[in-house]
Amino acid sequence: MAKDAGGWDYIWNPRTNEFLGRTAKSWGLILSFYLVFYLFLAGMFVFTMYVMLLTLDDFTPTNQDRLVTPGLMIRPRGELLELRFSPENTETWDAHAQSLDTFLEPYNDIYQAQTNDDCVPDQFFIQEDSAEVRNHPKRSCQFNRTVLEECSGLQDRSYGYQSGQPCVLIKLNRVIGMLPGKEGLSPYVTCASKKEDVNLGQLAYFPSNAAFNLMYYPYYGKRAQVNYTQPLVAVKFMNLTMNQDVAVECVVVSNTIAPGAERDKFAGRVSFKLRVSDQ
């Protein structure tokens, strides 16, 4: 094939009617092949997705890697799990109080009485399906805000921050189907200083046994159990040393939950820092 100075004969050769070295028939065969090939791949993808969706349950994961040790988390979380404030400076703790107000709004006693059941404590609230009949939506047990007493925000709108006795709420992460206790013993929370030479002083827990009662388990998932209210434990630090950084670690204790590995700082535990300043 001759090529002129501009190279245009390679793009279109009028003598052979070739475009980029191929005739129209050759280009047609190539395009037809790739069209059929990609339509086949698209069809296989759609068919595979359709078969996979048929195996999924709208309410329960078909396959889930159940955590051996669920995590703990706190409210308020602060920045990087650090709570620094001055009782005399409202601006340093007001955001924490507002965060707790918002978080606890669904726990108001009136709302709980309207949406959830008054369950029997210290036993699992198991709701089995009946053969092919799905028991949905599943009911949930009441967790009333008043159970948190001094940390409910009802008696003290500042949650203790204005008096230098901060409240921290602790929750156990949700795991579908988990039964976190046996023989009627509920998992409970205990908090301590991460440094042996630092004394946290007196701690007050609400409820007083610091337990996540068994009646809130098992959890069936947010679609199956739409009104589920996660149980909480509040810890109030009664006499923290002023102007001192305190590293706190709270852990869950249970006769069915394995202790978390040291390398996973959120497995069965949560660590955070507190500092109460006088200015």
Structural description of this entry:
This protein is of the alpha+beta class. Helices cover 21% and strands 18% of the residues. It has helices spanning 8-11, 24-55, 90-104, 109-115; strands at residues 12-13, 18-19, 72-75, 82-85, 167-172, 188-193, 203-206, 232-237, 246-253, 269-276. The model has no long low-confidence stretch (mean pLDDT 88). This is the non-catalytic component of the active enzyme, which catalyzes the hydrolysis of ATP coupled with the exchange of Na(+) and K(+) ions across the plasma membrane. Belongs to the X(+)/potassium ATPases subunit beta family. The chain crosses the membrane at residues 27-56. Its main location: membrane.
Major sheet: arrangement of strands: 3-5-8-7
Radius of gyration: 31 Å
What structural class do the secondary elements suggest? alpha+beta
Give the DSSP E fraction (strand runs of 2 or more residues): 15-25%
Order of helices and strands: HEEHEEHHEEEEEE
Shape: elongated
Measured as a percent range, the helix fraction is: 10-25%
Q: What is the CA-CA span between the terminal residues?
A: 89 Å
What does the largest sheet look like?
Answer: 4 strands, antiparallel
Low-confidence stretches: none
Q: How many strand units?
A: 10
Number of helices: 4
Mean pLDDT: 88
Give structural attributes:
4-stranded mixed β-sheet; 4 helices; 21% helix; 18% strand; ATPase activator activity; transmembrane helix; sodium; potassium
